[in-house]
Design brief:
The structure is a homodimer. Chain A is α/β, with parallel strands linked by helices. The first copy, chain A, contains eleven helices and eleven strands. The first copy, chain A, has an eleven-stranded mixed sheet with strand order 3-2-1-4-11-10-5-6-9-7-8, sandwiched between helices. In chain A, helix 1 links the parallel strand 1 and strand 2.
Chain lengths: 345, 345
Amino acid sequence: MRIAIDVMGGDNAPDAVISGALESIELLDEDDELILVGPKGRIEPQLPSLKSREGAISVVDAPEVIDMDEAPIESVRRKRRSSIAVMAKMAKKDQVDAVISAGNTGACVAAFQMRMRNLPGVNRPGIAVVFPTFEGPVTICDVGANIACKPINLYQYAVMASMHSKHLLGIKNPRVGLMSIGQEDAKGNEIVKEARELMKSDSNMNFVGNIEGRDIFEGVCDVAVCDGFVGNVILKLTEGLVDGLFKAIKHELMAEKLRLAMKFKPVMKRIYGKYDYNEYGGAPLLGVNGTALICHGASHSRTFKNAILTSKRYYTRKINDKIIEYLSGTPIYSMSQDRNAQRPV
Amino acid sequence: MRIAIDVMGGDNAPDAVISGALESIELLDEDDELILVGPKGRIEPQLPSLKSREGAISVVDAPEVIDMDEAPIESVRRKRRSSIAVMAKMAKKDQVDAVISAGNTGACVAAFQMRMRNLPGVNRPGIAVVFPTFEGPVTICDVGANIACKPINLYQYAVMASMHSKHLLGIKNPRVGLMSIGQEDAKGNEIVKEARELMKSDSNMNFVGNIEGRDIFEGVCDVAVCDGFVGNVILKLTEGLVDGLFKAIKHELMAEKLRLAMKFKPVMKRIYGKYDYNEYGGAPLLGVNGTALICHGASHSRTFKNAILTSKRYYTRKINDKIIEYLSGTPIYSMSQDRNAQRPV
């Protein structure tokens, strides 16, 4: 398998990406290949000679960089030699089997969707993040690819995230919840209500109905579906709150007694570990015709190593085939066969 | 001041409401009056004889109850003798100065808006909840009154929540953030982008720009503005996550050492107290022509006591007058003078 990774993506690039890639080498198979995409002059001096695994790592030059705050579509069009644009093009030409980036999320979504196109039956891709809750992992889709969702998009996120939950995380019959503001049928805006009807009408889906914000952490569902605006708020709020609470606990403990704080440290670390997004490495962009992972901007080397391993799992377990198979077997499938089905944003 | 409270509202009604009301009596002024609204036969046997404050508490009969899962508008129209409908009518007739309920939120919003009407210049009321973060209290509006917001609604929530933050919480020049999915101008959906322009154009507003989910807990703003769908998800997610994290900490500590868990208990309690919504008692429905507080369904007696005190503060500090004054002084004010300005939902 050929895995391309954006060396210039994220706050800790390029060092963290390169070390993560090097760490992953030992965990990949003999015939796996890593392609580091970025400015050749910056990458090559950092690569040790890997005699034991010759040919396992190669470099593809991409001298331009898309900054985190650049406008997605414009930047991808203008910077054709950026790592993101180059990777997307390689995926299109079938020169790589997976692409991974911690760069500008909007630019990644735009470039991957534009070049790789959508899976048959999928109108809009969605980013699926795994929340490692205390009741088990919950896959949330979408967390930022599509902030103007139609009901059919939400339905397809439910399907795709279910396939992800089942075949990547190993959850047998994933329970799907639709994010709303109350459990009753009548709650939610018009888009949520229509999506609810689509999901209810699909007898293959283990749909548990509307869920509320707190349900994510209470073992009510394995998949939570929402539009990219709400999902993005959920993702960042959770990060901020967990960070804030742990800082507060540390602060209060230090004020109390240093010894108590020291004793609590391993407990804190263990709990923190359970909420650690680095464990899953990257979030797949579900619905593009290929394997594309988007990583957190603050990713460090372990995150990149895990993202590389996740991309391999995603690819070898054929999650995309499962999605196509599912969608082609549902009556709702025909609804998505509109003119826009194969067009990028 | 005459304060009406819905005795049948919330999971712990009527007992918690009645004890909360009795507890508040000692903290109110001589000429304050509490009106308990609910089934007379259930309330009166629970009232002790209050010789020291005769006339401080009275009962108004409302034999019907609106359940938590009933459709808001329909239930208010059908159950005219319910506590929520009766309170709303009393407010309309100027028989009370404030109304408080922990009942069906949708029914409260519908009834209060329908009867009390909106403040001049306000198109749609919004529920403002105070998040007691470690960096200070953040007022979030709206958390569920209006799930189909227009840009002008978001702008007005910013104004109203600022007045709340300034005059009720005592924050001098509240910094206002607009909830979005990135800090850059270009981020967010069309409604958010338009609201952003309205807020930027108001030189009286201390607008700090877009905020993301994590910023709520990082001392970036004193007021966070969002639509009722997003706000409701934020509110419930935060509750669920805080509960879940504390449960997890307890669990891990118990597994470790009982003694350590016992030592950590006071620290946990102190931190939990800082995130305690019961402290603020109730969330004002900003924008209705009167003082209306909506309490959490899980409120207990202390919450109701605090809600009664908050309603008094809201009323005596004339928050509504400040809102009217602010809105009448901005050029945007004229935009809100459309046909719908005074009409209920």
